Amino acid sequence: MQKLYFIGGKARTGKDTLGKALKKYYEEQGKRVCILKITAPLNDLLRNYFHWDGRDETKPRDLMQKIGYDIIHEKLGQEYFLLNHLMVTIDVLSSYYDVGIITDGRLKKEMDVLKEKYKEIKTIHLIREEQDNGLTEEEKKHKTETDLDDSSSFSYVIQNNNGIHELEEIAKNIVEKEVI
């Protein structure tokens, strides 16, 4: 792939929205774009071993919180299980797509491994300060599931306060800057 983006941040910061907006603006430039998720290998794991039928969309994230986080942190002795599968996918798709966008990055280790393998990757950290009012306890836990912080080096750090329209404008600016 000519360009690869890693979009990291806590839950509800707008990672998917920014990824879709980047895709839209790159496609307007005539680029072929795919959006990837680090947790995609968990979908296969769920289908093959847990008989998941694909209907409950929260199931992969639930499994990620139960075992995926441990895998990434080497607690189960399967270092980089998810990342290795993701990198194989990126390598295969690179012959078909001009731009790859990873929209499910939360952990610093994920970002560091991808930056090491793909030297030209652009990293985006999304931050959103909002009240926890109305969130369930599970959503609050999910919302804080990240170890990305200011000590990491990012290509872009985006404070998302206004939502979809702001993210679309930011995506448009990023694409205009990167295409030149």
Explain how this protein is built.
With 180 residues, this protein is an alpha/beta fold. The longest helix is centred in the last third of the chain and has 16 residues. It is built from seven helices and five strands; from the N terminus they run βαβαααβαβαβα. It has a five-stranded parallel beta sheet, sandwiched between helices. Helix 2 packs across helix 3. The chain is globular.
Task: Note the topology.
Elements: E1 3-9, H1 15-28, E2 33-36, H2 40-49, H3 59-72, H4 81-93, E3 99-105, H5 108-117, E4 122-127, H6 137-143, E5 156-159, H7 164-179
Parallel strand pairs: 1-3, 1-4, 2-3, 4-5
Helix pairs in contact: 1-7, 2-3
Key structural traits:
180 residues; alpha/beta; Rossmann fold; 5-stranded parallel sheet; 47% helix; globular
Assess the beta-strand content as a share of residues.
15-25%
For the largest beta-sheet, the strand count, sense and barrel status come to: 5 strands, parallel
Question: What CATH architecture label applies?
Answer: 3-Layer(aba) Sandwich
CATH homologous superfamily? P-loop containing nucleotide triphosphate hydrolases
DSSP summary, beta strand count: 5
How far apart the termini lie comes to 17 Å
In N-to-C order, the SSE pattern is EHEHHHEHEHEH
- Spatial extent as radius of gyration: 16 Å
Brief sketch in words of this structure:
With 180 residues, this protein is of the alpha/beta class.
